[in-house]
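Here is the promised in-class demo. Please do not try to memorize the tokens; focus on the logic of going from shape to residues.
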């Protein structure tokens, strides 16, 4: 006989739903899923004074907790995952950085196993098919043009778990690689690019749908040469990634993106590296050394920004308390929008019956005090602890 489903009712909090905020709301957790109702007498946890929002979905993340997705063993990957889950990211795509093609293919094999087991939501290849003019924290010696045959090699190594590839689409083979990705059901993302406005429009018409960390690692917006930023902002087919850590973007740039894209076409990402949730010090990002000082990661040689130490909860808090963004718009950028990009909207990204019970509990100051992933507490809020003891 199958075990009976365990129910828990979260009560009293302001619940952020796709239809808006519900003060003094109720959310029913039935095993791993959200349910419409609970049986009489189901245990309740009083979360008055808190917010309930969907688990965060991070589509661009290189690691955290002192570990990276791109190197190390399975336990290193799990360390990085645990770090970000504790900050509310219940769905994470593992991003790699530029490396030798054979090494990236081998890494994809390891990461794909964790994706097949449901630990990861897939793999994002950031590099090596990017522009040396806008390489950021990628090794120039390892960069290469986006040859469709080599792109296909990485997709094959990922065994159906590749979710996104970042390309400088103006390079030789770029547009053909975009078309190949679209045919394979993989997101083609424009990033680390030196493209003109016209070249970017071509890539969008070929099927690109994401801008990798908009504004960063691309030419700035100009009034005579608008470059990729204008094309990416004006086209409704594009969802733009934003790294909202206070270092990568000025608040005015964030507001500009939301003004042009609307709340449904922005995805907050961390672009986190090993130091996220771990601390200052010296690290490696691929083959390059990185110094993290006061939470800002920069290449030891040259000083280029090298990813971030951001966690998604900090991106949300900053969006609401510093950037002046509404809670519902910020939550969409953290959850529903990236879930839609991944094709996972039927499972995650919003608090609706039938979906995974991935829930983040925030206090009145928008700090994480509780995290549920598939109905299990990763971070247990004090009211739940008290209810358990009672």
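The designed amino acids, position by position:
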């Amino acid at each position: 006989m199958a075990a009976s489903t365990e129910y828990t009712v979260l009560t009293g909090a302001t619940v952020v739903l796709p239809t808006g905020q519900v003060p003094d709301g109720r959310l029913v957790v039935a095993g791993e899923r959200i349910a419409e109702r609970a049986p009489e007498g189901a245990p309740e946890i009083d979360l008055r004074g808190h917010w309930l929002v969907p688990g965060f979905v991070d589509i661009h993340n290189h690691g955290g907790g002192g570990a990276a997705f791109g190197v190390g063993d399975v336990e290193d990957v799990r360390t990085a995952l645990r770090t970000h889950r504790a900050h509310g990211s219940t769905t994470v795509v593992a991003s790699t950085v530029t490396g030798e093609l054979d090494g990236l293919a081998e890494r994809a094999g390891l990461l794909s196993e964790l994706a097949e087991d449901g630990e990861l939501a897939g793999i994002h290849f950031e590099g090596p098919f990017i522009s040396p003019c806008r390489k950021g924290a990628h090794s120039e010696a390892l960069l290469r043009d986006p040859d469709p045959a080599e792109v296909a090699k990485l997709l094959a190594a990922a065994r159906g778990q590749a979710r996104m590839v970042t390309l400088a689409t103006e390079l030789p083979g770029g547009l053909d690689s975009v078309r190949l990705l679209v045919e394979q059901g993989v997101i083609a993302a424009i990033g680390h690019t030196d493209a003109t406005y016209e070249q970017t429009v071509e890539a969008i018409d070929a099927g690109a749908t994401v801008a990798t960390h908009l504004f960063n690692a691309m030419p700035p917006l100009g009034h005579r040469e608008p470059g990729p930023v204008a094309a990416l902002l004006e086209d409704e087919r594009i969802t733009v990634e934003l790294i909202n850590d206070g270092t990568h973007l000025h608040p005015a740039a964030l507001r500009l993106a939301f003004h042009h894209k609307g709340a449904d076409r922005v995805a907050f990402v961390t672009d986190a590296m090993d130091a996220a949730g771990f601390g200052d010090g010296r690290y490696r990002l691929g083959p390059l050394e990185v110094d993290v000082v006061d939470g800002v990661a920069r290449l030891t040689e040259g000083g280029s920004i090298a990813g971030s130490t951001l966690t998604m909860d900090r991106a949300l808090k900053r969006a609401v308390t510093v950037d002046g963004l509404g809670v519902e718009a910020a939550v969409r950028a953290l959850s529903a929008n990236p879930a839609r990009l991944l094709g996972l909207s039927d499972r995650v990204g919003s608090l609706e019956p039938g979906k995974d019970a991935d829930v983040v509990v925030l206090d009145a100051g928008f700090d994480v005090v509780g995290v549920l992933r598939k109905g299990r507490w990763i971070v247990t809020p004090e009211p739940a602890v008290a209810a358990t003891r009672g």
